[in-house]
Amino acid sequence: MSSSSAAPRRGEKAQAAAVRPPMREALVAAAFQLFVERGYEETTVDDIVTLAGVGRRSFFRYFPSKEDVVFPDHERCLADMTAFLAAGDDAADEPVRRVCDAARLVLRMYAENPAFSVQRYRLTRKVPGLRAYELSVVWRYERALAEYLRGRFAGLRDGTLHADVIAAAVVAAHNNALRSWLRSDGRGDATATVDHALAYVQSAFGASPPLRVAERPEDDVVVVVARRSAPLWRVVQELETSLGPRD
Length: 247
Description:
Arc Repressor Mutant, subunit A, Tetracycline Repressor, domain 2, 2 domains, elongated, disordered N terminus
């Protein structure tokens, strides 16, 4: 037997194992290879595990369904976002800025692997079921942002409404910029694109939150604090909110 066909020694086996991709990543790679070659609907879990060289049990250890293999990192990202929001300092953090920063964690997940993100974007455009799945994931991100803001605006006039509207605006701005970047095949600066979109949200909602509801005599004095850069209409809106309905 020639030296070129000799079995690898123990050290060589260990080295090969070290460079082999983890099983989870191998399953994702196999799945997307088949999705491209055969189509999503035509690919089965059995096809994926056969190409990856593992058993069905290994697949379901990492992914509850075939849809989940298309979005392998969203659960981790959602957990990171929730932890990031929970770790905030309510006394120091402006809440709208905080949720915008939390949304940037999602961008970072996409930007870590632009080629994979673009490939997934193209796939979800073709498969209605994946698009619906993606929307359910987006809704979970929005709920996480809204829950944080509801806690920050608790006891304030229209606090829940304010929280839900801002959360929806953050997600809409982030996704608009993210999809623009994905449609360009991942070219350009994704961070700058998303920052530009989120700046609109911060300029619209980043002023003082709704004022706390309180009884007051007719001759009281109302003070509204606003940023110097706030547009006049925003200051007037805050004043009207603080005064409330008049008899």
